[in-house]
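Sequence of Methionine aminopeptidase (Alteriqipengyuania lutimaris).
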Amino acid sequence: MTEYQTIEDYDADVYRDGTIKLHGPEGFEGMRRAGRLAADILDQMPELVQPGVTTQSIDDAIRTMMLDAGAVPATLGYRGYTHSSCISVNHVICHGIPSEKTLKDGDIVNIDVTPLLDGWHGDTSRMFFAGDPPLKATKLVEATHEALMIGIEAASKPGAHLGDVGAAIEAHAKKHRYGVVREFCGHGVGRLFHDAPEVVHVGVAGTGPELKPGMFFTIEPMLNAGKPWAKVLGDGWTAVSRDKSLSAQFEHSLGITEDGVEIFTLSAKERHKPPYS
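Predicted 3D structure, token representation.
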């Protein structure tokens, strides 16, 4: 049986105990602030993601933006990770490590940021284009953003279950003949960076925990242009497609409300997906 824990006054003693947390107004307000900052940071990325730019310089800019806003990068020091964001290029599925390697014309880039602001985690990622990518890349990116929004729509329906989210995303990916990565998933979020429940991007409708008001979690589908399989490189972080096919990902943090969902990490500038104006 799924366990839920109602949280009224969250404090520093909250820890991952396997329960799905149900948050009140304080939690929603905290996530709005953290999510807004995360979205604002990604809104500034199109001007930085250019051919010839290093991913390390982008990471440095992200860290400065977070610190200037009174937040800290949740990834910095997390399980030994030493950067302020994850930047995944082309066939890198997720957890790409920023480096001195420069972007090339036509690269597609996922930037994943999580500012920790006043104790709340705003977790989100978007795709960006360095120069002019090939048509196959733009189609993959478009379909991946559609998959995210279709998953969110499934979560917004009364009586929805987590399986409905995964089933909707999987059906959309199959329609386009893309592989849905199974090794990585969405997760509960809030005062904890990663919490219950796990949000798998494949599934059977009507299965899994019922979505209840106050639940916070991410939906972050990863679609490969080829097979769905992933492998992690020797650095222990970088996940790539086994067949070296292009991969794309979008992520939002959201909360279940009495009448649907609230997306905490929407772009105020409507920079939801590339190409960005």
